[in-house]
TrEMBL record, chain A:
PANTHER family xrefs: EG:114D9.1 PROTEIN-RELATED (PTHR46002)
Species classification: Eukaryota, Metazoa, Chordata, Craniata, Vertebrata
Database matches in CDD domains: EFh
Record's GO cellular component terms: cytoplasm; nucleus; plasma membrane
Tagged with keyword Membrane: yes
Protein name per the record: EF-hand domain-containing protein
From TrEMBL, chain B:
The keyword tRNA processing belongs to this UniProt entry's keyword annotation: no
Main location: endoplasmic reticulum
UniProt lineage: Eukaryota, Metazoa, Chordata, Craniata, Vertebrata
CDD domains: LPLAT_LPCAT1-like
Residue stretches making up the Phospholipid/glycerol acyltransferase domain: 232-343
GO-annotated biological processes: phospholipid biosynthetic process; triglyceride biosynthetic process
InterPro entries referenced in this protein's UniProt entry, alphabetically: LPCAT1-like, Plipid/glycerol_acylTrfase
Name assigned to this protein: Phospholipid/glycerol acyltransferase domain-containing protein
Domain of life: Eukaryota
Bilayer-crossing regions: 14-35, 143-164, 170-190
Gene Ontology cellular-component terms listed: endoplasmic reticulum membrane
Pfam families linked: Acyltransferase (PF01553)
Length: 223, 453
């Protein structure tokens, strides 16, 4: 090892990142250490492959979406500032922010910004609306090609046991597009208030108003 | 001018005699003159003093360095079911069912970002971070200038390590290896007496002892009564090629591996002359049946030495034990597990093959303070009824991890180079689908008003 990580990051940069994201000095240096250890090409930026090298992330069903969130529009490399800016969304919300400056912009880890981050993970084309297709895409990622039983069960009730056993063997089950489609339709139906058959950000916020976003979209960073 | 050279020559002669008397002879016959013990004591005192200095200076300057390098984040250790259940609790259960909520994705996002910040696997393929600096540049992550005294000690350390210890160690190691080749070749010429195997063992152990001195290795063996016996397989966790030297200092093993060319090849062929080792051609290694057959044949011959195998298949950084490949556990032989734990304070034994090749790695070893490690021999294990090779391998792995104080991981060490298999992602997807589908079943039953099957 012996990478003198903290000396490569200048003090002014650390201060700027501190102001922008709210991380502490030691957290920033440790995250920089992590950044450089992921950066196998040693060119100061991370590519998508660098992220995919993390096995736990590679097996996460939404891993690709999460990786995407780090990269600005149309770019293939993310530098340390961008890395920290994205991670900042997951800082816990502290009740007494020391510099409660009403004129300053909302901190990156506010409830609204956390929800916006989640919204953007659904909203692929960045048109500020979650369409049925986009919702379906995320659902398909989370679910894969998987066994599911109720379609088969429904058929079993209507047919006699022998045939249905054969059917069960033949069907080689999936959660069909049809099934996912009805889940998507239901979700949009519940959330859509202005009847445009898609979910806008405000409708998104409304649906999730009872969810404890602050805790569920926060990571407890130590020291 | 001539006088100068005469003096140098005389000095060299004295030097060589000293080495032979003080280092090689004790190594050959297995007793100790206490030189290394004294060296270690001085070293420990110095490192303690250095640590104290750093601590006091840090508190003076109020640099808060948390001694717990436990991690960057504190994770919620909840299962997918528990977490998604909590997320959904806030929503009233829709009469139409379909237990999906827009907030389900939060669980995956948070897990994903946690893994980006800190994951269990990638950190095992690079050297362990030390809590306090041990006066080696290579372990210096966060260098602050502490004090003049400390820097001077460090400079002295560099001089001692590079100019005094390293040449000495290199010489010892070369002597050890040369003797190994010569000794085993000579023994190889003897006919098959019982004396031959005794001699071969003696030559092997002696040369490995010299090599161990060449690394300033201090090894503590525990539970020697469980030492591997003939006709069994010895398995151990793998941190570096030095593991072989460490284990062979206290016993003789048959090695398994690929036959190399060059210097390694010479070594391998010489060793094979004295007693049977198992060297494979590169092409044969891929043939699992062939490998298994040769291992089985060796094990069944009760006069042959126990086989030494590292089931992880690659070097891990000695903080954890990764997945054991099941090949050696399918043979049906007695398994003798051994746990090896290095003390990182004196030198980092991990071989990061991506960063360093063998030669630079060995040079790093020889310019560390010392190699200190503990070896625990665990009681023999057999495959039990109804236990398949994978379960048996996991059982042995847990025993080793538990004894060595290492973390027991299920991840494959091969992830150092290869991508993770898609089957793991599919497992996650399956788990989530089951949760989705249960809601579907309930909803479809509600809507169709059918009795449950």
């Amino acid at each position: 090892m012996g990478s003198r990580a903290s000396t490569l990051l200048r003090e002014e940069e650390i201060e700027e990142i501190k102001k922008e994201t709210g991380f502490s000095h030691s957290q920033i240096t440790r995250l920089y250490s992590r950044f450089t250890s992921l950066d196998k090409g040693e060119n100061g930026t991370l590519s998508r492959e660098d992220f995919q090298r993390i096995p736990e992330l590679a097996i996460n069903p939404l891993g690709d979406r999460i990786i995407n969130a780090f990269f600005p529009e149309g770019e293939d490399q993310v530098n340390f500032r961008g890395f920290m800016r994205t991670l900042a969304h997951f800082r816990p919300i502290e009740d007494n922010e020391k510099n409660k400056d009403p004129t300053a912009s909302e901190p990156l880890n506010s409830r609204t910004n956390k929800l916006l981050f989640a919204f953007r993970l659904y909203d692929l084309d960045r048109d500020d609306k979650i369409s049925r297709d986009e919702l379906l895409q995320v659902l398909r990622m989370m679910v894969g090609l998987n066994m599911f039983v109720s379609q088969v069960l429904r058929m079993m009730v209507g047919l006699n046991m022998f045939v249905s056993q054969v059917l069960r063997m033949m069907v080689g089950v999936n959660i069909s597009d049809e099934q996912l489609g009805s889940i998507a339709d239901r979700t949009i139906q519940e959330a859509d208030q202005n009847g445009d058959n898609s979910i806008s950000f405000n409708e998104f916020i409304k649906v999730l108003e009872k969810v404890d976003v602050e805790q569920k979209m926060s990571i407890r960073f130590l020291h | 001018m001539e006088d100068f050279w005469a003096v140098v020559l005389a000095g060299l002669k004295v030097w060589v005699y000293l080495i032979v008397a003080l280092l090689m002879v004790p190594a050959m016959f297995g007793f100790s003159l206490g030189i290394s013990e004294t060296y270690m004591k001085i070293l420990i005192k110095t490192l303690e003093w250095a640590t104290l200095r750093i601590q006091t200076v840090n508190t003076e300057q109020q640099i808060l360095k948390s001694p717990s390098f436990n991690g960057l984040i504190q994770r919620e250790e909840g299962s997918m079911e528990k977490e998604l259940g909590e997320l959904r609790r806030s929503r009233p259960k829709s009469p139409l069912g379909g237990d999906f909520s827009l907030s389900d994705c939060f669980y995956f996002y948070r897990r994903g970002v946690e893994d980006i910040v800190e994951d269990e696997v990638t950190q095992r393929f690079s050297s362990e971070e030390l809590v306090w600096w041990n006066l080696l540049t290579r372990t210096n992550y966060d260098f602050h200038y502490i004090s003049l005294k400390l820097t001077m000690v460090w400079v002295l350390g560099v001089f001692v390590r590079y100019c005094i210890l390293a040449p000495l160690r290199i010489m010892l190691a070369s002597i050890g290896l040369t003797w190994l080749v010569i000794g085993t070749t000579i023994v190889g010429f003897l006919p098959e007496w019982r004396l031959k195997s005794w001699l071969s063992e003696w030559v092997h152990v002696m040369c490995y002892r010299i090599c161990a001195r060449g690394l300033s290795a201090t090894i503590h063996y525990h539970n020697k009564e469980n030492r591997p016996r003939k006709g069994g397989i010895c398995v151990a966790n793998h941190t570096s090629p030095i593991d072989v030297v460490i284990l062979c200092n206290d016993g003789c093993y048959a090695m398994v591996g690929q036959s190399h060319g060059g210097l390694m090849g010479v070594l391998q062929r010489a060793m094979a002359k004295a007693c049977p080792h198992i060297w494979f051609e590169r092409a044969d290694m891929k043939d699992r049946h062939l490998v298994a057959k040769r291992l089985r044949d060796h094990v069944n011959d009760k006069t042959k030495l126990p086989i030494l195998i590292f089931p992880e298949g690659t070097c891990i950084n000695n903080t954890s034990v990764m997945m054991f490949k099941k090949g050696s556990f399918e043979i049906g032989a007695t398994i003798y597990p051994v746990a090896i734990k290095y003390d990182p304070q004196f030198g980092d034994a991990f071989w990061n093959s991506a960063k360093y090749n063998m030669v630079s790695y060995l040079l790093r070893m020889m310019t560390s303070w010392a190699i200190v490690c503990d070896v625990w021999y665990l009681p023999a294990m057999h495959q039990q009824e109804g236990e398949d090779a994978v379960q048996f391998a996991n059982r042995v792995k847990s025993a080793i991890a538990h004894q060595g104080g290492l973390l027991d991981l299920c991840w494959d060490g091969g992830l150092k180079r290869a991508k993770v298999k898609d089957t793991f992602k599919e497992q996650q997807q399956k788990m989530y689908s089951n949760m989705l589908v249960r809601g579907e079943e309930e909803s479809s039953h509600n809507s169709d008003k059918l009795p449950p099957p």
